[in-house]
What we know:
The chain is α+β, with helices and mostly antiparallel strands. The protein has a single domain (7-299, 307-361), classed as L-amino peptidase D-ALA esterase/amidase (4-Layer Sandwich). 23% of the residues lie in helices and 23% in strands. The chain has helices at 87-93, 108-122, 155-164, 227-230, 257-273, 314-335, 352-361; strands at residues 32-40, 52-60, 69-80, 95-96, 100-104, 136-140, 182-183, 186-187, 190-196, 205-214, 243-251, 283-290, 295-296, 339-340, 346-347. α2 packs across α3 and α5 (257-273) packs across α6. The radius of gyration is 20 Å and the shape is globular.
Amino acid sequence: MEERPRARDIGLIIGSLRPGPLNAITDVEGVKVGHVSLIKGSGELVPGKGPVRTGITVILPHPGNLFKEKVRAACYVINGFGKPIGLAQVSELGLIETPIALTNTLNVGIVADALIEYMLNLNEDIGVTTGTVNPVVLECNDGFLNDIRGRHVKHEHVFEALSKAKGGSVEEGCVGAGTGMSAFEFKGGIGTASRRIPAKLGGFTVGVLVLTNFGKREDLLIMGVPVGRELRDYGRSSTNMEGSIVVIIATDAPLTSRQLSRLCKRATHGIARTGGMSSHGSGDFVIAFTTKNKVPHYCAPMLHDIKVLREEVLSSLFRAVIEAVEEAIINSLLRATTMVGRDGHVRHAIPIDRLIEIMKRYRRIS
Length: 366
């Protein structure tokens, strides 16, 4: 597969905060990401058979048993034209107790069932001596390139993604859940970025992973430059693009679920900086979690005695979220390669050479 650059590789320095060493969600210690990509067949769509351009991405907030050791979390619905599973309980209880899975719209039920099976295998007490489990699955519609009716992501693919989940560098672009996704009528998919808060404010890390499948071409902005207008006619396959975005935010800052909900809302600013507008047909969802202040399923004290960050320090985390979301979206575009899908539909990769020329002309890079 063609190796394409990330934003910073071509001199695009977004924001003022420094990224973590990998500039990825996995800069937050303990976070793991796993992908399985499904690419099969070509030509005319045969509903239920192919061509297949889809996949599964999983995010593990920590390497342990998430049901036994839950993480504090929050979610935010920017525009609710989507079909996620599990967000009601996350909103109500402020906890996540399974890996987070990303896939295509019509595969949500199968993926949720696989997550439940995975957690039941890990925890023989679920549904016997303790309660049930809340799988968290989010989605975007990859039907422009993929035979979405085929629901090709099966249990074994979810289990494979979970087994492959790791720290370190994160694959981006046409991978996992991003395999068949589009962004600004270019090829989109998975993107990631991170930011470090200055040591005097705690030295915390914020990491972001996005699944991009949204945006009209003319609206695309990169560092304020109207790149979409400059490239309005480049390899354009369709002008009918509303679409969706999923944003996952991780941090090691000790936050409450209420504070995490405030982080979620700041993702909107990062999306807007790239030209996203959350149209009527968008399913735009944000989840944030912290790896600190985990909540044990058993033996929890009657009163929780935890340390949480002062509210005044949150502004630095807000900036980190905004910058990381913006850069993760751009990375999802830059890292994606051109893909031909069902019925010969094409999503072209954003042209790097022309992008560099445009950014130089607007004096964003030298």
